[in-house]
């Protein structure tokens, strides 16, 4: 007996709708946004409609009283959707059956108008933002409108921060819980402290918030000390690198020879190529002086004293004094074993700093183990 599926008539599929063809290309971003009912921007027509609704105040049920005794009319449903503060305010007044009237004072009337308009259409004029950005930051924080708050922070960061207003913005950023903006302001104050501290805003802060001024001065001093430490470390690093290069050049001269100086156990090669060690030039003249000076004892000659220090430093860095070609390496290494503990610690500290500055744990001639 055949399967029941084989006996099923195929005419049933005749009335079925024809399936749409498979998409030949992936959906564009615009189509995906539409299907997902998401939008990060508003069309110009929609924004104009919202602006017109605000400008015409059609069926407005809220009266907003500003500092200039101007009245701005708005819609409670729109304000409540845009701000949880407005929503809670209207819910309380709705229960008392009183008309909606909201006083927003302490900022210019035009700033309030720009703020309310933003709640409708998320738009503003550039010159209005530039003129009222401080007030808009305060209003966006007070009425919990994060979109506008982020926009104000971004505009400050990209355009409007300078040495004249940075102190005011810094105080406002602290009050309005804008940590990124406060950090940026703090950096600008540290960078342009002279201009910022001579501004009128700084004088006003000194009178109204002396504790904040004291904290800023402390951070300025800390930053100055950090810069000094950084410069000192860079200078020390340069010295340690120069000492390391001098040690390499000393081994190079005593083992291979360089330019006009060669090792005592080899014939000097006059056809050798250019030297890769920058320290060789000064070291050659120092070695020539050391070889010819009659006051070669340590302390007898400034140049010879420096040569003795280089030789002792080499002996402390050298891996194997038995095969080393540098003069006095082995005898100086033996001398270090009998040296006073205090002097020995000073040399060991210098050796460690030189090797760590070079960021090595071993090298053709020197080793960190020599400093232990």
Automatic annotation (TrEMBL):
Listed GO biological process terms: regulation of DNA-templated transcription; response to hormone; response to hydrogen peroxide; response to salicylic acid
Pathway listed: Protein modification; protein ubiquitination
Gene Ontology molecular functions: calmodulin binding; zinc ion binding
Domain of life: Eukaryota
PROSITE patterns listed in its UniProt record: BTB (PS50097)
InterPro entries in the record: BT1/2/3/4/5, BTB/POZ_dom, SKP1/BTB/POZ_sf, TAZ_dom_sf, Znf_TAZ
CDD domains per the UniProt record, alphabetical: BACK (cd14733)
Start and end residues of each BTB domain: 60-128
UniProt entry keywords in alphabetical sequence: Metal-binding, Ubl conjugation pathway, Zinc, Zinc-finger
Gene3D superfamilies attached to this UniProt entry: 1.25.40.420, Potassium Channel Kv1.1, Chain A, TAZ domain
Protein name: BTB domain-containing protein
Organism ancestry: Eukaryota, Viridiplantae, Streptophyta, Embryophyta, Tracheophyta
């Amino acid at each position: 007996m055949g399967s029941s599926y084989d006996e099923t008539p195929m005419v049933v599929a005749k009335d079925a709708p024809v399936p749409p063809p498979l998409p030949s290309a992936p959906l564009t971003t615009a189509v995906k946004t539409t299907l997902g009912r998401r939008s990060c921007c508003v069309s110009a027509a929609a924004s104009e409609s919202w602006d017109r609704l605000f400008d015409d105040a059609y069926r407005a049920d809220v009266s907003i009283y500003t500092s200039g005794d101007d009245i701005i009319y708005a819609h409670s449903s729109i304000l409540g959707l845009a701000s949880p503060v407005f929503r809670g305010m209207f819910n309380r007044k709705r229960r008392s059956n009183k008309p909606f009237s909201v006083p927003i004072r302490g900022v210019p009337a035009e700033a309030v108008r720009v703020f309310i308009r933003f709640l409708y259409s998320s738009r503003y004029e550039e010159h209005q933002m530039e003129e009222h950005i401080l007030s808009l930051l305060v209003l966006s924080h007070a009425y919990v409108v994060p979109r506008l708050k982020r926009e104000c922070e971004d505009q400050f960061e990209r355009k409007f921060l300078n040495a004249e207003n940075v102190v005011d913005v810094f105080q406002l950023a602290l009050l309005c819980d804008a940590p990124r903006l406060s950090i940026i302001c703090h950096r600008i104050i540290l960078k342009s402290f002279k201009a910022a501290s001579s501004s009128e805003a700084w004088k006003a802060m000194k009178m109204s918030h002396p504790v904040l001024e004291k904290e800023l001065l402390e951070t300025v001093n800390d930053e100055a000390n950090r810069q000094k430490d950084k410069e000192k470390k860079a200078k020390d690093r340069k010295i340690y690198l120069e000492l390391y290069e001098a040690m390499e050049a000393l081994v190079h001269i005593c083992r291979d020879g360089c330019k006009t100086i060669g090792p005592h156990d080899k014939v000097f090669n006059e056809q050798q190529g250019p030297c890769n060690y920058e320290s060789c030039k000064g070291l050659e003249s120092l070695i020539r002086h050391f070889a010819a000076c009659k006051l070669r004892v340590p302390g007898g000659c400034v140049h010879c004293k420096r040569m003795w220090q280089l030789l002792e430093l080499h002996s402390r860095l050298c891996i194997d004094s038995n095969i080393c070609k540098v003069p006095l390496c082995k005898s100086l290494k033996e001398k270090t074993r009998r040296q006073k503990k205090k002097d020995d610690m000073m040399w060991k500290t210098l050796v460690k700093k030189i090797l760590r500055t070079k960021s090595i744990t071993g090298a053709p001639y020197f080793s960190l183990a020599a400093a232990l």
